[in-house]
Amino acid sequence: MAQPLVKKDDDRDDEEYSPFLGIEKGAVLQEARVFNDPQLDARRCSQVITKLLYLLNQGETFTKIEATEVFFSVTKLFQSRDIGLRRMVYLMIKELSPSADEVIIVTSSLMKDMNSRTDMYRANAIRVLCRITDGTLLTQIERYLKQAIVDKNPVVASAALVSGIHLLQTNPEIVKRWSNEVQEAVQSRAALVQFHALALLHQIRQNDRLAVSKLVTSLTKGTVRSPLAQCLLIRYTSQVIRESGVNTQTGDRPFYDYLEGCLRHKAEMVIFEAARAITVLSGVTTRELTPAITVLQLFLSSSKPVLRFAAVRTLNKVAMTHPMAVTNCNIDMESLISDQNRSIATLAITTLLKTGNESSVDRLMKQITNFMSDIADEFKIVVVDAIRSLCLKFPLKYRSLMNFLSNILREEGGFEYKKAIVDSIVILIRDIPDAKESGLLHLCEFIEDCEFTYLSTQILHFLGNEGPKTSDPSKYIRYIYNRVILENATVRASAVSTLAKFGAMIDSLKPRIFILLRRCLFDNDDEVRDRATLYLNTLGGDGSVVETDKDVKEFLFGSLDIPLTNMETSLKNYIQNPSEEPFDINSVPKEVKSQPLVEKKAPGKKPTGLGAPPTGPTSTADTYERILSSIPEFTSFGKLFKSSAPVELTEAETEYAVNVVKHIFDRHVVFQYNCTNTIPEQLLENVFVIVDASEAEEFSEVGSKPLKSLPYDTPGQTFVAFEKPEGVPAVGKFSNMLRFTVKEVDTSTGEAEDDGVEDEYQLEDFEVVAADYMVKVGVSNFRNAWESMGPDFERIDEYGLGPRESLAEAVSTVINLLGMQPCEGTEVVPSNSRSHSCLLSGLYIGNMKVLVRLSFGIDASKEVAMKLAVRSEDENVSDTIHDIVASG
Amino acid sequence: MLLAVLIANSEGNILVERFNGVPAEERLHWRSFLVKLGADNLKGVKNEELLVASHKSVFIVYTVLGDVSIFVVGKDEYDELALAEAIFVITSALKDVCGKPPTERLFLDKYGKICLCLDEIVWKGLLENTDKERIKRLVRLKPPTEF
């Protein structure tokens, strides 16, 4: 297929067609034989390599045999002295990435080039060798690489440094030995060498906090020659700041001045990096934030889309934590809604949704409605998520927001988008009781014309649980039965289950439900018929109106407390070994097998969401409940009241990573220690935690469950249970020691040695605090809830909180102390305000509803005073809330 | 990580496609996603005007140069600003090799050189060289002038 190329030398500009027109792999491979000619034609060889590159860049692949053949031929080209061809050969070898057994043929030529007097041969040979090398070869060339790092020629040094960055992934122990040379290269006068050296040095030392801190200290004072390196330095500085915290005496934050100085750098890249670093400082104050927000605001009206995007993206993130700080940018942001770039417009909208106040909601919704019609589904999903958060923040606005959601639900859209809307409506129904009836009706209307089986079944399931609890359940029956008539078998089966749930919950509807279920007995799908038969029997389908007993309700509404994977394995075993005995569901083990970490990491690795849709989220509370109920020792503890967020008990990057989740029951607490072994050469067995509760007097240990085995990178759990006085919010401090038997593992075979050694590992302490006994439960209308709770058990008192950093800091401290849900966006304190009211709601242990009104005031000397009014269903609970604040 | 550099002609046919750390099974998705992104947004865009998009944690910066559209995809430290830097280097190098914003034919005529330039600019997902003068010398195995 060389024809077009032959013509190439004619009048080039007149040629319309591609020089690669009709290119075909087989023919090019034939042409590659020219590499074997005794008299090499460098120009022709370069042309053939170009064709091979073209094929590879088009996504064409070579078989093993083809690749080997081309590779061997290409190596012959080292004989040519043509410089242009040599450069092509280097590239071609990298592209072919020969296998370990083939590499040998080219190493001697490359080693020769690596010691060549021509610098550029050296640089390229290093890059090729490092691309194709393995550990053994690397030790042979290590000496040259170390020299190359400090080579006078910046290209050679950069080649060695970038190679080092890549090799660190595969041969960390070798690359770590180069740190002296890399350290020297960081001081290089060549900008790119410094950039690459800095990146490598940080990777080598990333686990050594002190070294990173020293590196940052010296470089922030010295000269950094390229904006790219400056950006790296800002990132590392940010890490050091994160780990060191604020100087408590002076209130100064280390390196803040450096970051602030970078806001005035001439390169935009550096300005943004610094602004971002400032916005993510933990506990950042308004004073620290202001200069960063100001530069970002300027970029909002830049003519370059990349800068507008970067600015709005950063402000969007800031709006999540400090919405008030971003409000100054709202006007600039509103003009971005009409930005041609839809990514920018979406980010602007979602930022405005976060920073807007209750009065601006309606105006915003109007703007969004126009905007929605011309953006893609992926952006719409982002907007839907933002609207959901807005609705939870301003529950009184649920009508207009719910209407918006139901309108967009009726419009065209793909599965992911529709799922996002349905999920949002479901969450709003759950969290805002007033929104329930209208929300359910919107969902009912949606399933009348829903093309997605998955969504229809999910909604039917939800309707079965929530519908019977509404004021007029009968109005949903028509929608559900329509599904039995009109849908596919999967949806029909779901609808049958939903009907049965209505029958079980509402006795007056039972006779009518039975009639409908009996009709389903003639369905042409066996699953639908089976379900109808099953439900008619369990509900007593003879038509008499009897109260459905507890077991039946449990059967209909309870969740399957067996992990599905266990069920699947047991059923497969049962089929493989046929038996007369019927399958016994009690024989299925309930223990949750730990998932290898690798699998969990997999979705994170995916750089794109274009693949298969992710599986629906299971709530962590459900997962915890399932895990705990599978442990016989803990089944007598009753219903799980609350599970805390995991508290880390080890530092990052340690041998064993352990965190603890505190599960609170009425009379017990269970500590779930999630352990991960990060050492490939070790297998841990009989893992358990020794807990010292001497500083937690009211707790006494009643049981524990060790973890039999903890292989590398496969998280597992061990549990310790304590008894405590009923209903009392007992607090205390717990010290922990991890004990285990460690066995050596041969990493090549994965087999562990028979004998192990007992060992222990000190974990950090943690505390059970008052907030652990409070579940965050919001109310849609605080005022109504407050009025209806009544003043019977109201307790009011005033407190002096002493001098505080700011009003916002005082508010958030009290919220965290109580562990309650802030309502109606009152957790946000406008900057410069001298007083603030905050509304909190929660469910205290014993399922007691609690509402709190906090009024704060701050004086010129930053002394904060607070008035606390509590209403609850029990006077003891109201008193306890005051005790918590008084002792906190 | 600089996940991908992709260059397509005005009809959306791929001319150069280089992925780093993207699983083989996802490449096709990326290819069609980027081509569609270009078809939707690049009409009437001036040479070298940068457009930007993001998808979850991945950023895309793209532009037009003559008859070809250029896309770079990155994540983590290769955010929209770093990608803008990378695409600037790529467009400068292309203009340098071709002498002007290339027609498709000119691009293909200079294909070998262009591959060498890209090899100097991005190495397995890391930005290596950023100066077009230096790149111009490196592809001819000449040491940089400042040395």
Automatic annotation (TrEMBL), chain A:
Q: Which InterPro entries match?
A: ARM-like, ARM-type_fold, Clathrin/coatomer_adapt-like_N, Clathrin_app_Ig-like_sf, Coatomer/calthrin_app_sub_C, Coatomer_g_Cpla, Coatomer_gsu, Coatomer_gsu_app_Ig-like_dom
Low complexity bias: start-end ranges: 605-620
Q: Which domain of life is it from?
A: Eukaryota
Q: Which residues form the Coatomer gamma subunit appendage Ig-like subdomain domain?
A: 623-768
Give the family, as the similarity comment puts it: Belongs to the COPG family.
Alphabetically ordered keywords of this record: Cytoplasm, Cytoplasmic vesicle, ER-Golgi transport, Golgi apparatus, Membrane, Protein transport, Repeat, Transport
GO biological process assignments = endoplasmic reticulum to Golgi vesicle-mediated transport; intra-Golgi vesicle-mediated transport; intracellular protein transport; protein secretion
Topology with respect to the bilayer? Peripheral membrane protein
* Protein name from the UniProt record: Coatomer subunit gamma
Q: Name one GO molecular function term.
A: structural molecule activity
Q: Where is the Coatomer subunit gamma C-terminal domain?
A: 771-885
Automatic annotation (TrEMBL), chain B:
Tell me where in or outside the cell this protein is found.
Cytoplasm; Golgi apparatus membrane; Cytoplasmic vesicle, COPI-coated vesicle membrane
Q: Which Pfam family, an example, fits this chain?
A: Clat_adaptor_s
Homology family = Belongs to the adaptor complexes small subunit family.
The reply to whether Hydrolase figures as a keyword in the UniProt entry is no
GO BP annotations listed: intra-Golgi vesicle-mediated transport; intracellular protein transport; retrograde vesicle-mediated transport, Golgi to endoplasmic reticulum
- Its membrane topology, per UniProt? Peripheral membrane protein
Q: Can you give the residue ranges of the AP complex mu/sigma subunit domain?
A: 1-138
User: Where is it chiefly localized?
Assistant: cytoplasm
- InterPro entries, per this entry? AP_mu_sigma_su (IPR022775), Coatomer_zeta (IPR039652), Longin-like_dom_sf (IPR011012)
Q: What is the lineage of its organism?
A: Eukaryota, Viridiplantae, Streptophyta, Embryophyta, Tracheophyta
- Name this protein carries in UniProt: Coatomer subunit zeta
Database matches in Gene3D superfamilies: 3.30.450.60
Protein purpose: The zeta subunit may be involved in regulating the coat assembly and, hence, the rate of biosynthetic protein transport due to its association-dissociation properties with the coatomer complex.
